[in-house]
Amino acid sequence: MPAATTALHRAVAGLIALPLLTLAACGYGSEAKDVGTAEVAAGAEKIDGLDSVRIGYFGNVTHATALVGNQKGFFQKELGATKAKYAVFNAGPSEIEALNSGSIDIGWIGPSPSINGYTKSGGKNLRIIGGSASGGVKLVVNPDKIKSLDDVKGKRIATPQLGNTQDVAFLNWIAERGWKVDPQSGKGDVTVVRSDNKVTPDAYKSGSLDGAWVPEPTASKLVAEGGRVLLDESDLWPDKKFVITNIIVSQKFLKEHPKAVEAVLKASVDTNEWIEANPADAKAAVNRQLEADTGKALPAEVLDPAWESIKLTDDPLAATLDAQAEHAVKAGLLDKPDLDGIYDLTLLNKVLKAKGKPAADDAGLGSRQ
């Protein structure tokens, strides 16, 4: 595996040090919040002899599968007498650290922290085992200051964090327009302001930001403050699909407890099926779990458009993760990463086959172990 460059070390160090979001669509801090467990059915048996499986996710709309799976008890149903325990995270690095330390076993997380976590460990700490969501990222601007894409030049545009998924996407978009920005400082033809998603709407409202390239529900919060969607990132991708949330597992847990991992993946696929069949009820379930996890439900003017922009998927859309890694290289945040082996879709494809669904592709980046 190629040695990381100084730029990679700086980017990864910055991601770990900043108490901001590295996961697309979420992150307002660096601590995890433990949340309650569902009831275990009478007569149920433990899987792999485990007392519990610890599942991490973010309290955001792009983690709808995990939110609904918790709220409606899908994970607990498949795990039997093995208790599904949950931890809600506010930043990608803290979830990766929790996975590395064994504080969680399986997590819902975005592509950039997945890539950083995998490459930093030399390919030894995690595997991506499934997909969860696509889309849900927008460039929202002040319509009085920015009326066209060309008007973005010279303006102050926020992203959630140095090197996070949206930051990489925005820097790549800037480069493709022929503009220059220093990736570390954010200074150049556009001023890229790394701003916590929790405070970005207030910063926009105060006039200190001209816009933001952000995930849901932050994008819809900006629109509620008078912003206008100038660009939906989905429009930049083939078939309008790109990974925004993956399912990851520690390699140790995957090796030692494949039945438990398979149970969680089956629950994830079942949850996505239920969401597709019951969109209104699913949206309400997401908001109930968000309120339980964060203490505050989303108002309809934010939840409704955010929900519409997210597409749930069992497929991890591996080719788009590979492309996002290339974007980080082009932006100067990463050396060419070696992503061989980052995926293991064996158990996911077993679950999909049992349901008569097509297999997911790992884009040639699957584990050969």
Automatic annotation (TrEMBL):
It comes from the Bacteria. InterPro entries: ABC_SsuA_sub-bd, NrtA/CpmA_ABC-bd_dom. Pfam families: NMT1_2 (PF13379). Residues 1-24 form the signal peptide. Gene3D superfamilies: Periplasmic binding protein-like II (3.40.190.10). Keywords: Cell inner membrane, Cell membrane, Membrane, Signal, Transport. The keyword Membrane applies. The keyword RNA-binding does not apply. Its main location: membrane. It is found in: Cell inner membrane; Periplasm. NCBIfam families: SsuA_fam. Belongs to the bacterial solute-binding protein SsuA/TauA family. This is Aliphatic sulfonate ABC transporter substrate-binding protein. The lineage of its organism: Bacteria, Bacillati, Actinomycetota, Actinomycetes, Kitasatosporales.
